[in-house]
Amino acid sequence: MSDVHDLDPESFYEEVHSFEFWFQAVEGYLSGTTWGHRPETTDAPMSPEDRERLITVLCNYCVGESAALEGASGLIAIAPNRLAKVFLSTQVVDEGRHLEVFYHRMRDLGVTDPEREVERRASRSLQTFRRRLLELVASKDWEAAIFAQNVILESLEFAVFQDHAREADSVTAEILQGVVKDERRHMGFGENELGRRVATAPHIRARIGQVKKELDHLVLESLEETVRTLGMPRDENERIGRSYIETVERLGFGS
Description:
Layout: H1 9-16, H2 19-30, H3 48-76, H4 82-108, H5 114-121, H6 124-138, H7 142-167, H8 170-200, H9 204-230, H10 234-250
């Protein structure tokens, strides 16, 4: 098979939005795993305090993945073309898997009712973000919803998961490393989709700027809560916050 990057732009666009491309991508890092990690990877002893912190953080991750799952599934109906619909259908599967492995990780940690814990522990800022994202989807605001979901939310998750994986226990780290690979693909879709639309309709950028201004504070508040819960130094919050902002700017949608 030829390198996908050797394709002409339109063929490349169709290929990377396909189920075939998705299957090859996820098979490469999910093969041989169970619940997002290798079966031979086992938990090391964890203090009660570390366990509680990890459960709270996983609750926040579940809210983010639920938002992306519901958002992506709702966006399929209003997607402007076949390729966007197909890509979003692969994203729905990704987000469903992420949600499943995070819930299973909580059960591994002894949580008997993960849904109850998510409702009790999850960041209120993140839950507000989820509601606002789903309102954008329900209003059929395609560009704003894709920006909120595939740029803002995915950039936040990419920055947090990548950083957390460096310090996490071995099981959680493997789960997060796999999820991050999916987030890169989701961010790429958001960048490509919005970049193409802004190029033909520059006024869309102003609408995106409004959404960013509205949602940024919710993202940064939930980030601060997560960093604090993990017990990271305060300067880690600033560093991960900068990473989130730089990722959004690198995608072409900074302030």
